[in-house]
Amino acid sequence: MARSITWSALGCLLLSSRALSLEQGAASAACQYLEGTFATETVLPTDEQYQNLSEVNWVQTAWASPTCIIQPTTAEELSELVKHLVAQDVHFAVRSGGHSPAPLGANINDGVLVDMSKFNAVEYDASRNVAVVGSGLRWGEVYRQLDQYNVTVVGGRILDVGVGGLALGSGLSYLTDLYGLVCDNVVNFEVVLADGSIVNANAQSNPDLWWALKGGANNFAGIVTRFTLNAYPIVNVWGGVKVYSLESLPALFDAMLAYQTVAQKDPYANLMLQAFPLNSTIGVIVNMVYMKPVESPSVFAPFYNISTLADTTKLQTLTDFLASQSAAELPRLDWFATSFKPDADLYGTLKTILTSAPELDQIKALTAGSIAIGWQPISASAIEAGHARGGNALGLESSNQTWLVLDVGWWDSEDDATARNATSSIINKIEDAAKGADKYVDYIFMNDASVEQPVIEHYGAENVDKLKAAQKRYDPNLVFQNLVPGGFKIPSA
Ligand SMILES: Cc1cc2nc3c(=O)[nH]c(=O)nc-3n(C[C@H](O)[C@H](O)[C@H](O)COP(=O)(O)OP(=O)(O)OC[C@H]3O[C@@H](n4cnc5c(N)ncnc54)[C@H](O)[C@@H]3O)c2cc1C
Ligand SMILES: *[C@@H]1O[C@H](CO)[C@@H](O)[C@H](O)[C@H]1NC(C)=O
Ligand SMILES: *[C@@H]1O[C@H](CO)[C@@H](O)[C@H](O)[C@H]1NC(C)=O
Ligand SMILES: *[C@@H]1O[C@H](CO)[C@@H](O)[C@H](O)[C@H]1NC(C)=O
Ligand SMILES: *[C@@H]1O[C@H](CO)[C@@H](O)[C@H](O)[C@H]1NC(C)=O
Ligand SMILES: *[C@@H]1O[C@H](CO)[C@@H](O)[C@H](O)[C@H]1NC(C)=O
Ligand SMILES: *[C@@H]1O[C@H](CO)[C@@H](O)[C@H](O)[C@H]1NC(C)=O
Question: What CATH class does 122-233+460-475 carry?
Answer without folding.
Answer: alpha beta
